[in-house]
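[Discussion] Sanity-checking designs against the backbone

I'm trying to build intuition for which residues belong where. Below is a structure token string of 210 positions. I'd appreciate it if someone posts a full sequence so I can compare it with mine line by line.
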């Protein structure tokens, strides 16, 4: 679907440029953008290596486990249908903790493992449970304490204060997570919940096949 959207945007822009007589400007913009993309990508190598290295050290030092202990009481309230000692609970907590610290490469395996464990508690294999939908909402919105990628991009593009993004990112992702949780809990109590769960399950199946 995403590929089709991008293709549609490209075709529309080309067609409009032909009608407006701005084909030369479009070609020039594409060329300049390609050059800029390469420069940013090369600049990101060093910055991303530094930040990911620091986050890896934090992970090895047990920082993820510290964050996990802090948020575990909240998760017990948020997922009442998941037993506290079930592996799904631990995997979900570690996934969110890693995401909060900007360690996406560590968060992904925890997220996949969490969904597998949640599926074990699912009595209907073709419909996502409330816990699955809630976890997906939290994982998608993902509170960011350290937005590593955003900081790296700002630094690579020459921003004099790349860390200024930390507070706005924390505020925005906190609000998005709260909104996601409220929406999921609302849908749980309405008839829309059934169709929403089926939709989430189909998305998960497609991601798995890819």
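Best answer:
Here's mine. Compare freely.
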């Amino acid at each position: 679907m995403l590929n089709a959207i991008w293709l549609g945007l490209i075709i529309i822009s080309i067609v409009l440029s032909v009608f407006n007589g701005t084909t030369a400007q479009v070609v020039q913009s594409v060329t300049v953008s390609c050059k800029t993309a390469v420069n940013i990508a090369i600049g990101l190598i060093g910055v991303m290596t530094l930040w990911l290295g620091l986050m890896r050290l934090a992970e090895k030092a047990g920082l993820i486990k510290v964050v996990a202990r802090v948020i575990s009481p909240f998760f017990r309230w948020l997922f009442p249908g998941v037993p506290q000692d079930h592996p799904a609970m631990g995997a979900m907590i570690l996934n969110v903790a890693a995401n909060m610290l900007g360690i996406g490469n560590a968060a992904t395996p925890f997220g996949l493992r969490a969904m597998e464990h949640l599926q074990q508690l699912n009595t209907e294999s073709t419909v996502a449970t409330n816990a699955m939908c809630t976890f997906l909402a939290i994982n998608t919105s993902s509170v960011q304490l350290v937005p590593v990628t955003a900081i790296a991009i700002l630094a690579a593009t020459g921003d004099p204060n790349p860390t200024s993004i930390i507070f706005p990112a924390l505020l925005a992702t906190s609000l998005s997570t709260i909104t996601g949780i409220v929406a999921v809990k609302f849908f749980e109590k309405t008839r829309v919940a059934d169709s929403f769960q089926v939709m989430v399950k189909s998305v998960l199946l497609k991601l798995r096949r890819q």
